[in-house]
C-alpha cells in the first residue's frame, strides 16, 4: 500500500443543494491548513468555481471527480496523482448526496454517493435544520440507509436558530446513532457573493482572505475538528495502472487565462503537460496576442459577456487569433471562448460587440435561457478535441442563446438521456468551437 492509499479522506455532502456544503468545506479546508495539515481538496461533478475557492483555502489545486463524465480509470488516476504529500483529503459533493442523472454514464450517475463509494471515504452530512428539529434525524437515516456502499459517519447541523433548537435536533440524531460533529448558527454575513453561474470567481473576490479567515474561525468555534479527523478513512484500494487519456491539441498551446477565460479543468492541463505539451498563458483582457510559436490556441469558457467592450477593442488579441487561424493553426473555443470566436456577442443590456469573426456564431444574453447538463459528443471531424469519430464526454452550462450559426457542425451531441442536442458546435477549417466543455474521452 503506497502513500496514496494511506491518505485519509472525507466527503462533505448534504441532502440538497444550498444546504451549506461549500461553507463547511471552505472553513474546514482553511482550518485544517491553519492547523498544519497538508489538505487536498476535491470537488464532485462539473464545476469550475468551487474548486478555485478550495485552492485558495487549502493552498493546493482542487480536482474534479465525476462518475458520469469521467471513466473510472480517470477518477482513480486523479486520486493517485493528487493525494501524495497530503495528510488528509476533503471532497465537496454536488447537489444532494444521491442526486445525479437518470441514465448512468461512464460508470455512475454523477452523484456524490458514487465518489464516496469508490473512495471509501466516509460522508459528513451537512443538514440545514432551518424549519425543522427532530425530523432532521429521519432525513439523516434515509441518507444513511439508501446505499450500503456509502457510509454516513457524522452530521453537522447548519442554520441552527438557538440552543434549544440545537438540543432538539442533536438529541434526535444522537438517539438514532449519529455522531453530531457540530452545529453552525445562522450567519448570513458569511455567504460568498454570487452571480448567474454560481459564486463570483475566487480571483474576483477582493477580500477573499478575510472571508476565508472568517469561515475558518466559524468552523473552529462550532465544529469538533479533532473528531472530524478521527472519522476520516484511508482511500479504498485503486488500480495502480489507471491513467488519464486526454491528448493535448498541440505541442505548444497558447491558453487564454484571465477573469474572462478562467474555466478550464486542472486535470485537462495536467494531462496535456504529462503528454509533453507546453502551456503558454496569455490575457485577452490585457490585449495580449497568443504566442506565435504555439501550434494551437485554446480559449476556455468564462465570462466574456461581462467584458464585451474590452474584448471587442483588444486589437492585438483579435488580430493574433486571426493570424493563427490564417497560418493554419488549431484554434478552439469552449463556451465563452466559442462566443468570442464568433461574429458578435450581445450582452445582457442588448449591446452587440464584434468578436473575432472566425466562426459565424452570433450569441446573445439579452434573453437569458439556462442550458445545463451533461453532454456526450461524437466528433464530426478532426479538431482540437480529438479525431473524427471519437466519443468524448463533458457538460454545458450557460445562459447564452445562439442567434445564428452557418458553419459545419463540430459534433453530434446528446444529453445525459441520449437525446440529441440542437447546438452541435461549429467548425470552419482549422477553427472550432462549442458550448460543450470537455471532461474526458468516452470508453
How would you describe what is shown here?
With 443 residues, the chain is of the alpha/beta class. It has two domains: 8-234, P-loop containing nucleotide triphosphate hydrolases (Rossmann fold, 3-Layer(aba) Sandwich), CATH 3.40.50; 252-441, Rossmann fold. The protein has 13 helices and 24 strands. It has helices at 3-6, 21-34, 49-58, 72-82, 112-119, 135-145, 163-175, 208-222, 225-231, 266-274, 308-312, 315-326, 336-341, and strands at 8-13, 39-44, 63-65, 88-92, 123-128, 152-160, 180-185, 194-195, 198-199, 233-234, 252-256, 278-282, 296-299, 330-334, 344-346, 352-354, 362-364, 371-379, 391-398, 401-404, 411-415, 426-428, 431-434, 437-441. Strands 1, 2, 3, 4, 5, 6, 7 and 10 form an eight-stranded mixed β-sheet that branches. A six-stranded mixed β-sheet has the order 12-11-13-14-23-22, sandwiched between helices. Strand 8 and strand 9 form a beta hairpin. Helix 2 (21-34) packs parallel to helix 3 (49-58), helix 2 (21-34) packs across helix 8 and helix 6 (135-145) runs parallel beside helix 7 (163-175). The longest helix is centred in the middle third of the chain and has 15 residues, at 208-222. The chain is globular. The relative contact order is 0.12.
Amino acid at each position: 500500500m503506497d502513500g496514496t492509499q494511506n491518505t485519509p479522506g472525507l466527503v462533505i455532502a448534504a441532502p440538497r443543494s444550498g444546504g451549506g456544503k461549500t461553507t463547511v468545506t471552505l472553513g474546514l479546508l482553511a482550518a485544517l491548513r491553519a492547523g498544519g495539515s497538508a489538505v487536498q481538496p476535491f470537488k464532485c461533478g462539473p464545476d469550475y468555481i468551487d474548486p478555485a475557492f478550495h485552492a485558495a483555502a487549502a493552498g493546493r489545486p482542487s480536482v474534479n471527480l465525476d462518475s458520469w463524465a469521467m471513466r473510472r480509470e480517470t477518477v482513480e488516476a486523479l486520486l493517485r496523482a493528487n493525494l501524495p504529500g497530503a495528510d488528509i483529503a476533503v471532497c465537496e459533493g454536488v447537489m444532494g448526496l444521491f442526486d445525479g442523472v437518470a441514465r448512468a454514464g461512464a460508470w455512475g450517475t454523477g452523484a456524490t454517493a458514487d465518489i464516496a463509494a469508490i473512495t471509501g471515504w466516509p460522508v459528513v452530512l451537512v443538514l440545514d435544520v432551518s424549519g425543522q428539529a427532530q425530523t432532521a434525524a429521519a432525513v439523516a437515516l434515509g441518507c444513511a440507509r439508501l446505499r450500503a456502499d456509502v457510509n454516513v459517519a457524522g452530521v453537522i447541523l447548519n442554520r441552527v436558530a438557538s440552543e434549544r433548537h440545537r438540543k432538539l435536533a442533536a438529541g434526535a440524531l444522537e438517539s438514532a446513532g449519529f455522531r453530531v460533529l457540530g452545529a453552525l448558527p445562522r450567519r448570513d454575513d458569511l455567504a460568498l457573493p454570487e452571480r448567474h453561474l454560481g459564486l463570483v470567481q475566487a480571483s474576483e473576490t477582493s477580500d477573499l482572505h478575510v472571508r476565508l479567515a472568517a469561515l475558518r474561525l466559524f468552523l473552529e468555534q462550532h465544529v469538533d475538528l479533532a473528531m472530524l479527523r478521527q472519522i476520516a478513512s484511508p482511500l479504498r484500494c485503486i488500480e495502480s495502472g489507471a491513467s488519464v487519456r486526454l491528448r493535448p491539441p498541440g505541442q505548444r498551446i497558447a491558453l487564454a487565462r484571465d477573469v474572462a477565460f478562467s474555466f478550464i479543468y486542472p486535470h485537462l492541463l495536467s494531462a496535456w503537460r504529462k503528454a509533453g505539451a507546453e502551456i503558454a498563458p496569455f490575457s485577452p483582457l490585457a490585449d495580449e496576442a497568443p504566442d506565435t510559436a504555439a501550434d494551437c490556441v485554446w480559449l476556455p469558457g468564462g465570462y466574456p459577456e461581462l467584458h464585451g467592450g474590452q474584448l471587442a477593442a483588444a486589437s492585438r488579441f483579435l488580430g493574433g487569433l486571426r493570424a493563427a487561424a490564417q497560418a493554419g493553426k488549431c484554434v478552439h473555443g469552449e463556451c465563452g471562448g466559442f462566443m468570442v470566436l464568433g461574429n458578435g456577442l450581445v450582452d445582457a443590456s442588448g449591446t452587440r460587440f464584434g468578436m473575432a469573426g472566425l466562426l459565424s456564431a452570433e450569441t446573445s444574453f439579452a434573453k437569458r435561457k439556462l442550458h445545463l447538463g451533461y453532454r456526450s459528443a461524437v466528433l464530426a471531424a478532426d479538431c482540437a478535441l480529438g479525431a473524427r469519430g471519437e466519443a468524448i464526454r463533458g457538460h454545458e452550462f450557460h445562459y447564452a442563446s445562439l442567434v445564428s450559426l452557418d458553419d459545419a457542425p463540430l459534433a453530434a451531441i446528446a444529453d445525459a438521456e441520449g437525446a440529441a442536442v440542437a447546438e452541435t458546435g461549429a467548425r470552419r477549417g482549422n477553427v472550432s468551437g462549442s458550448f460543450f466543455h470537455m471532461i474526458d474521452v468516452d470508453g
